[in-house]
Design brief:
The chain has 161 residues and is of the alpha+beta class. It has a domain of 107 residues. Helices cover 15% and strands 37% of the residues. The chain contains one helix and five strands. It has a five-stranded mixed barrel with strand order 1-2-3-5-4. The longest helix has 24 residues. It is globular and about 55 Å long.
Amino acid sequence: MPRKFIPAVPRRLVVIAVAVTLAPLSLSGAASAQQTCQKYGPAPVALTGMVTSLQASGPPGYGATPKTDAIIQVPILQLSPAICVDADPANPDNTAEQNVNSVQLMFGQGGPQFRAELTGTSFVVSGTLVHGSGPGHISPMVLMVTDMQQVLAPADPASPQ
């Protein structure tokens, strides 16, 4: 039986072709492996980001009665990096969320309180996540705050002590 002629393919071209073909598979696997989704409460979470605030309609109607609603400053944590949140099968309101870039901060009595001078500062904020669906919730994700720790910038080794 006669041999078929198969042109020689340079080895470097084969390696490049295999790498380009497999790269998307390894990148998608790496991305999903790196991001562990957060859980809704009662599980505690600690999220890192910059505190900002938004103006929104407050009581009594939280936007339903704009003529009589107070204007309030709502604290927001701009997350870095974005998070995902697993669905909670025990509560149909707590749906899965992807690429969450910010969460509304809710402060209770007896814990840390929001102050306007905190805006523009990075914090690790601890608490429990709930799906924003109640009065005063202006964000799909709300963090019920139990603790806040300011993130201090690392010391610059070049600066004099």
